[in-house]
Write the structure tokens for this entry.
Amino acid sequence: MTTIEELKNTGLKATLPRLKILEIFQAGKQRHMTAEDVFRVLLEDRSDIGLATVYRVLAQFEQAGLVSRSNFESNKAVYEINEGQHHDHLVCLDCGKVEEFYDAEIEQRQQAVAKVKGFAIADHSLSIYANCTKNECPNRGATPDRHQHL
């Protein structure tokens, strides 16, 4: 399916800003992006799309179900293409890198806990904040102020 078809299927017109922003996410260079990250890519491409337009388009995409929003690190909104499959996130407290994962056992435990407590889960998100132990983490060993991240 083309970018234009995807936009039209959501009821959104295929305007230049919408097409460019959707293409940035589809290019897949960075899966989780803030509005500022998207704006930076647009600037590098010498695009004449302002930051306010980026925020507006991302809100429209979220409402249309094209992207989903998460709040990592001090409530900064991070967007990713909505592929319809649930996953959770590991967030590095040192460099901010986000890794996605799915674990059936964790999902089952959450359902069991909710049931015992008298709840039926409608939706959920799990973000685990941790320090990288990988050698390739650019800020490994740094001692961040953890309070600024939570």
Notes: The CA atoms of residues 3 and 68 lie 17 Å apart. The two ends are 39 Å apart (CA to CA).
